[in-house]
Amino acid sequence: MKRSSSGALGDAWHTVSLRAFDLSERAGRSQQRRVERWREHLFMMVQIALAAGLAWWAGESLLGHQAPFFACVAAIICLGLSFGQRMSRVVEVAAGVFVGILVGDLAVAAIGTGAWQIGLVVFVAMSIAILAGAKTLMTMQSGIQAATVIALFPNPGQGVSRWLDALIGCAIALVFSLVAPTSPVQKPRIRAAQVLFETAETLYAARSALRSGDQEAADEVLMRARGSEAQLRALSEASSEGIALVRYSPLLRQHRQHVQDVADLVAPLDRLVRNSRVLARRVSVAAWREDEVPSEVAGLVGATAEVTEFCANELFARRLPTRARDRIKQVGAESSHLHLSDLTLSSAVIIAQCRSMLADLLELTGMSYADARAAIPDMD
Predict the structure, then answer these.
(1) Of 207, 192, 186, nearest to 272 (Cα)?
(2) Of 52, 144, 323, 354, which one has the fewest beta carbons inside 10 Å?
(3) Is 262:239 a contact under the CB 8 Å cutoff?
(4) What is the pTM of this model?
């Protein structure tokens, strides 16, 4: 009995230790993600901070306004938007600020300040914006600025100066956007490379799961594949931002072709990731059903992972993956000569998805959709 109690106590202590280690490991990963997120947003934060300070200085020194609060606020709001939206939304912010300040100033002069006055002013300002055909941002800005005026700056007669402060803040934000360094130009290429690298890692994990038949490992492959949506969304946003930047910035127009070439990769990358999800789902199903998947099929998955990784490395090296074309065609030709007896549904689906992904990769090398499909021979 003593030995049994001691053993139970030891097991309990071991369980507690493992849980404590797991919690500490999760906390470490969480902290690491936070630091990485801070680094990713460092450029944006520095840009916004400089623009806010410059907007305050311009309103105070150039316009002679005391405490130009709306100048730095407008700069922060405009630069907080993704670049592809800034051109139109700078106008929206300025219009929303104008409506809000106008309504707020009139309300202060007519009905004073207080709780019900704030509610009424916000409702009236947002109503005017909506009736004028405003979008969400302008409508929100109208309400926010009206509330700010009546609650914090109830001084009728300064409406024009406050609107000028907002305009100078918007203008400074736009200038910062147009003369930004080339990091937004390079970001789409880096995002595309990250999508490819993550897809390659998913395929490597799928090959291992197929070889081992481990259902838990196969489920992890599926979860990993499903998590690729966020990367695709980040790529699409970075691509739109880069195109808008080189279109309007006079300093970055020499990068226009490169940015457009990377933007053209978004559609085939989207198809590539979708095909990888279908493949991952079938790997999970095969493990659950205990389907026997031939080693040749797992080998095809690995070969597809290798050429995907090669394409990722090319993009990381600031090159479009044109050098990968022959390698991809070779893997496609080998996939057409797989001689397998008693081919299960799982194996057939995995082969089909690999061949579709190879065609998607050929599009990344500059081939058209039709030529890429034709370059993968029919199976024997």
Answers:
(1) 192
(2) 323
(3) yes
(4) 0.59
